[in-house]
Design a protein that fits this description.
Blueprint (H helix, E strand, L loop, with lengths): L10 E8 L5 H12 L5 H21 L4 E7 L3 E8 L20 H8 L2 E7 L2 E9 L2
Antiparallel strand pairs: 1-2, 2-3, 3-5, 4-5
Helix pairs in contact: 1-2, 2-3
Length: about 130
């Protein structure tokens, strides 16, 4: 479901160093301020949902410092989230009741044009390219 692959080239837009899920509301607000005027509201909601889900997964399961970024490509918004769990690929929940959560990776994969992950220098990078429209 989450292939091992490098992300496409992209230009920086926003980035964060995160240590706690309590920082996620600030991150979401910064995304809204930065791109709300230039993006369809539904696309903005998808971008924030995917970024929030990926960052919260990294904070809960990745161990250590988490870095999150939104970058721009010609076709979309590239979300990249890095954590210290280089040996643990992103793993969608299997055979779990939806009321227990764990379905965020499935949702992101369905919204994304492409998605993947790779590891290097003891860091895991999980990424998703969401369309601009």
């Amino acid at each position: 479901m989450w292939p091992s692959a490098a992300p496409p080239a992209a230009d920086p837009l926003l980035s964060w160093e995160l240590a706690d899920v309590a920082e996620l509301p600030r991150m979401r607000a910064q995304v809204r301020r930065a791109v709300a005027a230039s993006i369809d509201p539904d696309v903005l909601d998808q971008l924030i949902l995917a970024l929030d889900e990926m960052a919260s997964n990294a904070l809960r399961h990745g161990g250590g410092k988490v870095e999150a970024a939104v970058r721009l490509t010609d076709t979309g918004y590239l979300i990249v989230v890095s954590d210290a769990a280089a040996a643990q690929p992103p793993t969608p929940a299997v055979d779990r009741d939806p009321s227990e959560g764990g379905l965020g990776l499935y949702l992101i994969a369905r919204m994304a044009l492409r998605h993947g992950w790779y590891a290097g220098n003891a860091v895991k990078h999980v990424w998703a390219l969401l369309p601009r429209t």
